[in-house]
Amino acid sequence: MELYVPILVLAVLAAGFAVFSVGIAPFTGPKRWNRAKLDGYECGIEPTPQPVGGGRFPLKYMITAMLFIVFDIEIIFLYPWAVAFDKLGVFGLVEMVLFIVTVLVAYAYVWRRRGLDWD
Amino acid sequence: MSTLTAAPITAPTIEYGELAPMLIIFGAAMIGVLVEAFTPRYLRKSIQMPITVLSMVGAFALTVWQGVRGVRSAAAMGAIAVDGPSLFIWGAILLLAIVSVLLINDDDHFVAEAAAVPGSAEEDQALSQGGAHTEIYPLVLFAVGGMMLFPAANDLLIMFVALEVMSLPLYLLCGLARRRRLLSQEAAMKYFLLGAFSSAFFLYGTALLYGFAGSVDLKAIATALSTVGGQDALLFIGAATLGVGLLFKIGAAPFQAWKPDVYQGSPTPITALMASGTLIAAFGALLRVFWVALGDLDAEWTPVLWGVAILTMVVGAVLAITQTDIKRMLAYSSIAHTGFLLTAVVATGKESQNANALSGILFYLLAYGFATVGAFAVVTMVRDPGGEAGHLSRWAGLGKRSPLLAGIFALFLLAFAGIPLTSGFFGKYAVFAAAVAGGAVQLVIVGVVTSAMAAFFYVRVIVLMFFSDPAPEGPTIAVPSMGTAAVVTLSAAATVVLGVFPQPVLDLAHTAAQSLFVR
Amino acid sequence: MIAMLAVPLLGAAVLVVFPGPARHPWYGAAVSGVTLVLALALAVRFDHTRAARPQFTVDVPWIPGLGLRFHLGIDGISLPLVVLTALLTFLCFVHLVRHRPEQGRIRALVIALLVLEVGMTGTFLALDLLLFFVFFEIVLVPMYFVIAVWGGAGRRAAAVKFILYTLLGSALLLLGLLLVWAHAGTLDMVRLAQAQGAGLSRAVQIIAFLAIGLGLAVKAPMWPLHTWLPAAHTEAPTVGSVLLAGVLLKMGTYGFARIAIPVLPEGAAALAPWLGAFAVAGIVYGSLACLAQRDLKRMIAYSSVGHMGFVLLGLATLTPVGMNAALFGNIAHGLITGLLFFVAGGIKERYGTTELPRLGTGMLARLPYLGSLLTFACVASLGLPGLAGFWGEMLALLGAFQPAAGLSRPLFLVFMAVGGVGTVLTAAYFLRMLSHLTHGRPPAGTIGGGSRGAALLDVSAYELAAWTPLVVLTVVLGLWPKALLSLTDPVVQAYLGTR
Q1: Residue B370 in this model has a pLDDT that exceeds 90
Q2: Which sign, positive or negative, has the C-alpha torsion C216, C217, C220, C226?
Q3: Does an H or E element contain B75, and which?
Q4: Chain B contacts of C112, Cβ < 8 Å?
Q5: B429 and C65: CB-CB below 8 Å?
Q6: Domain coverage including residue C197
Q7: What's the ipTM?
Q8: Which domain holds residue A72?
Q9: What is the pTM of this model?
Q10: Tens-digit pLDDT profile for residues C67-85
Q11: Which of A36, B402, C98, C137 can pair with B420 through a Cys bridge, CB separation 3.0 to 4.6 Å?
Q12: Nearest C-alpha neighbor of B259 from the set B336, B314, B202
């Protein structure tokens, strides 16, 4: 348990610092409002007008993002196998094929349902 | 680099044969996805349905075969336990899933176009064009596969994966009811948010227990209980958060809040699948975690589960009395039954005692599963113009309109109430007997009193059906399709047979429980 | 033996499948008649010299996984009750031949009554604790329907009260049975009774007796758990009331004699004073409540509370005399109260009401046969020597005079004295009722509900046929109590270990 004491101390220090900074700012800092400060931050340019509540977002962004994550993770799984494929032998090959087939099935579904078309 | 390559790697083994029932289900689900991708719309349903049912029947046959062969081992490097209880639970889940699929196969339970805004023109258009989401079938298969993996997982990580594989399709399926779309979407949203929350608890508990034992293997955790010292905080917090995740899935109080909303909003066939299959799977997993991994810690968790069991029984029975919606009432009754089952989970002791308690739980789960699928099947048949007639007052006088249907529903209700000569009685008796033998007498006192209370509201529905005058413009009784008729008949038959000659199934449960969980 | 259960069950099953026979007025009577003949055959073939041993036993494993055996048998204390059950059911059906329920649905009623008969007979035959419980519960459902469908105006509330009380009672009963099973390791009543509580610690026995006792006391019913009874009796149809009073209440007291006392002797000894106290409270309360009743059926219901008080007092003494008294009282009460409810049903049919003030006076002059039968039943019920009611009460008080060793004698003497007051009160309310109802001059013009006015029929042939056996048996048992006591005594002696 003693091993964790420094971590605990560090966590307390970090939390304390954060609370302190946020808490002290309103009392010590100068308050000079202007419109630009109250606006949402969009890389320094004028904010694009948005409907109330953020408005609707085309679903295709989300599908693209999800597909990206799926293939991203597939690559991550491929790396360790690629390093040790000879030692894992047939077992590794079979498992990897199964894994890729699984992803492929999903890919085929997305493709046929036109999830890959942008328009 | 050199150190990495120099280290010898022994390839792990996977016993495909022993895992075959599960692999069939997952494989069929993948084929189902391909069918969705490559076949024309009008053919899909007639391909999906046979694939689903046949794969389940095949998996069931394989499960039975393994049971006959007496397979008892931990497969996949000890990550998945194919032991007696697993096989029994697999069989039960598959049977109930087959029955539920017959119900799911019925038209017009599911939405035509899930993405359309409820009540919009797009929805009407999809409806008139006869649109349907046949993805339901692969989703159900994935869920069932997850249900099978969940109680068999002998390793907390596998268990977590199974939990997600089981839950994610169910979150989706919950939101696909054709009628009362908003309620259905609300149910899906609630189930997803609360389910994700509980998964987080589960994962957190897994991490903490890994911190304690240095392994996620249930057996290794059990060993670590006696060998590792000075890490009690990790152990207790880990066990507690893991328990929260599991208790959420079985719907024990105080984690029961999702059940009524989800049961009410979901398409009724999906409710039937959840109420039977998910409950069985989650109980299997709960038992495995608490009995195998934390078995030697029972002095610590028993008092907590006592409290949970009492609370669950009381909350379920008391709140059920005030319900006016039939599906909500059945949801609360499911909570009460969860509480009854928990009385036997607590009743641990010597090995023979554990085996008795386990076989009681297994039998109860199967008996309750059939009765509940049957009851929900009846619910699908009583309809208003706007969908199923949910409000209890609409059920008044059903016995006069359709004596047969009302009689069968009364049978299921009597089984829930635990009246002798129905399956519910022997289930309850077996569980309570195990609890008494395990020294949980006070718990059984609460159990019998709440079950008498619960019996009251079941009887109230029977009275309503048979002795009240029918509402002037009462619900219509849908002419059952072959599938629904088969479901109702099968469930009623199972309820009666398990109530009069439960011996074969009890024997089976007993044999399954004899070896307890593989360690 | 099994036929006793199979015949009514088959009879009911046939009706479920084929609706036809129900329309025949004699169907139910025929089925229950066969059952009665079987019961009488059993009684004749019963070996009276070995009354203490269960005879005609059937013992097959039913569900070995739960230790449940289909174990039936008949001995000295169950034989009279089985015959009584068969008789009363048969008479109910005979009554139904002419007196169709107003609500119709005769087929459902016949089914319910037949299933009820299966449950009641099974309860008395069962020699396995769990089997006993199964039959005990089976009785609930049809009885509930009988009250809820064919009852009077307040039937819904009465039925709900009935089911709530009895369900809670059976829940406790189940708990007690589970305790016995967990500690004794068997559910066989015969072996449990022979063991005389061996292997059960005193604490377990007391808790188990409390649970089982409460469960049975609801059914008996013991004051203060009786409040479901008047409502149920008043609202139930005649046949329901007869079976409720004649048989169902007996299941509670029979359970005491068969299970609670022999299986848990130490628990019984510890709690007997309480049982006795509640019993005499019931006697006095029942009679006082009767004095205040304005409704005939309600009055009979409260008188049942009083009479079952005597039965429970007899049981509480834990002596052979007291137990015999209880078992005798059981049968006598079944016969007499059955008769009373039949007569009350007849009155209700004629006058359209059972409220005493509206019934007016002078029944003997108006309806001489009905009036005499009512008088006979009341006199029997108040315990006139020479009729069956007398022996049960007298022997119960005698038992209380000399309770079993280990029980406080002064306490039971007080019980006896209070019980004696109870008998006087019982006599008082019955005589008051009789003097009001049967004597005097019939009021001029119409009576009671009055639409049927002057043309009231006296006892019909069917009614006479249904009632005569009860009258005869009441007289026979009153004059020759040994006929029954010789049956029950050996069992009681064996149970209490006094022989």
Answers
A1: yes
A2: negative
A3: strand B73-75
A4: none
A5: no
A6: 2-445+456-496
A7: 0.81
A8: 56-119
A9: 0.84
A10: 778 888 888 888 888 888 8
A11: C137
A12: B336
